[in-house]
Amino acid sequence: MATFLYKLGRLAFRRRHFVALIWVALLTLAGVGAASAPAAGTTSFSIPGTEAQKAFDLLEQRFPGMSADGATARVVFKAPDGQKMTDAGNKATVEDTVKELSDGSEVTSVADPYTAKAVSKDGTVAYASVKYDVSGMELQDSSRDALEDAAKDARDAGLTVEIGGDALQTVPHTGATEIIGIGVAAVVLVITFGSLIAAGLPLLTALIGVGIGISTITALASVLELGSTTSTLAMMIGLAVGIDYALFIVSRYRAELAEGREREEAAGRAVGTAGSAVVFAGLTVVIALVGLSVVNIPMLTKMGIAAAGTVVIAVLIALTMIPALLGYAGKKVQPAGKKSRWMGGTRAAKKAAGEADRPAKPNLGTRWASFVVRRPIAVLLLGVVGLGAAAIPASSLELGLGDDGSQPTSTTQRRAYDLLSDGFGPGFNGPLMVVVDAKGSGDPDAAFKQVGDDIKGIKNVVAVTPAAPNKAGDTATITVIPDAKPSSVTTEDLVHAIRDKGAEVKADTDATVLVTGSTAMNIDVSEKLNDALLPYLALVVGLAFLLLIVVFRSILVPLKAALGFLLSVMAALGAVVAVFQWGWFAGLMGVEETGPVMSMMPIFMVGVVFGLAMDYEVFLVTRMREAYVHGEKPSQAVVTGFKHGARVVSAAAVIMMAVFAGFIGSSESMVKMIGFGLAIAVFFDAFIVRMAIVPAVLALLGKKAWWLPKWLDRALPNVDVEGEGLRTDAESKGSEDPDEDRALVRA
């Protein structure tokens, strides 16, 4: 592989006009596709195989005019102090509001609080339910404006009015912190390279790659039903890995220049060595993201595949466009250790000339690695204990999906939620919809009555509405109000209790009982994700373990990498619990309301963090293996790996942390949580696991770290990540043969 990538790097360097034209053409094509694509339609949240989804699908069939997936709104009214909603003036205001709401073009029904018995027992709170024939994301702005105008008119009449439900759902925004993250990445690149030109290359290529990826997602959003979170995640990961992959190749190019090689040769060697690490690091990320499909949640699958696509683009750009741009930059990209004139290069050169007779001072990476090699046990224990302490909060992890109760108190959705809880009880915000399929029953009406009576006898049930059958009379819906809030364990137990009762009803009447609704759907999603976590972890870690055996030709190094990942991801989950569930530093992170961690967060973090963790493992340890293969002792190889790789890996980690942290400013709680979780996970993995625990373990293992059974060594393909083939082949024959370009193109 190193030889092939070496030739590819030289080809891209020589044919830079052609390579640049291809990528610009792809960016233009993707941009045109995004601009001409129809607006994204509904992004249905389906969970195949769950009871809640089966009930939802049944409702679509048996109640065709119900618009089960349509947006809903609850307009909540509260009377002034000392008054009741049943007072004549207040009642007239509400009736006028209901009439005003009914005039909407997308409104299918509006329930009058006084005929629907939607007035609290003390008479102070009432609500009107509004149903639409399209989803919240498809709702026109005019419908939202009409909803808010109606509420404003009622407020002007003296009532307190708030609006809940998904009708006010909007596309989330990320805020200015995303730009700040990119700015921090630019500063780190300038400091690392000492050159504005060299620093600009990774940023430029990363932005082009993300532009192609996001534009493609936008172009396909309507056809594939891709949500806004999909493009946000793809941007987050594509930008981070795009900068990092380009950073490693540019850094290696400068190192090759420092050894006296010509620029074209240096570009070829940079792509042949660092490019090999980029390919395998990218593969681990792709495996982790595509592996999310095993969970069988379409939304999560689409998010993973879309993000994996941006990673593939980042890898291809790093391997081709970076050497092409290096060809354009020419002498403006200096060898390693030299700075441009604008960055103080002239002063540095004079100072170096004056100190030429003095021995070179080891860099920080060398000094740190030497310390770890001398004190491996102490460093190992300190790192493991520190991460273990950070992981402690994860033991109290509570999972759930956000509802209006998790919104900031400044929003009308949250205020409506609180008003309904005060007026009707906390369980009123999470009603359960029981669907009774009596098509196979001899007496459907008796089955409906039995289900209602049985549910009334279950603990923690506040109210049960009479069965509402469809026109055919073979299916009915029953609404159940729990006495606890939607995200509570009590409500979860109630859902299971109703389903257990359904088994008894089935035996007695041949009617099928299904529980659905947003609360039941959230419970089913959490259970599905929890059940899929271990199989997913085994699949992703297993595939990546096999891949790393091929890369490092070792058993213990990949095993150590996997165990280190588990430490970092558990510590990161602990940090997420501490901030978003316990409320530590919540104000600093812009978290206005604490609550359960989103159900998909653990499995999502496992996938993404594992892929990113393997990035640093591959980049850092391949340098160590390269030194070991070329004759250095194991302990010295660790120091050499840090000498050449620690500065770049540290810069890459800081850049990735800055990019992820930039998404903490998002208005979407899921994006905010993902941004924080990934940023803190990169910190733990890069600076504690890879920079401390990895060298300590390798120092303790010595030659055993690189042990591989002979039979396995013979069976594995030789991918030559270290570039050994370049030493024995490329230097002797060069790459000046004009037929080589044609041969590579044919390959």
What secondary-structure arrangement, pairings included, does this model have?
Elements: H1 2-14, H2 16-36, H3 51-62, E1 72-78, H4 88-102, E2 107-111, E3 125-132, H5 141-156, E4 160-164, H6 177-193, H7 196-224, H8 228-258, H9 263-290, H10 298-329, H11 345-354, H12 364-374, H13 376-391, E5 399-400, H14 412-424, E6 432-437, H15 444-456, E7 461-464, E8 468-469, E9 475-482, H16 489-509, E10 512-516, H17 518-552, H18 556-581, E11 597-598, H19 601-629, H20 634-661, H21 669-701, H22 710-715, H23 724-733, H24 739-746
Parallel strand pairs: 5-11
Antiparallel strand pairs: 1-3, 1-4, 2-3, 6-9, 6-10, 7-9, 8-9
Describe it.
By secondary structure, the protein is an alpha+beta fold. The chain has 24 helices and eleven strands. The strands form three sheets. Strands 6, 7, 8, 9 and 10 form a five-stranded antiparallel beta sheet that branches. Strand 8 (about 470) and strand 9 form a beta hairpin. Helix 1 (about 1-15) crosses helix 2 (about 15-35), helix 7 runs antiparallel to helix 10 and helix 8 (about 230-260) runs antiparallel to helix 9. The longest helix is centred in the C-terminal third of the chain and has 35 residues, at about 520-550.
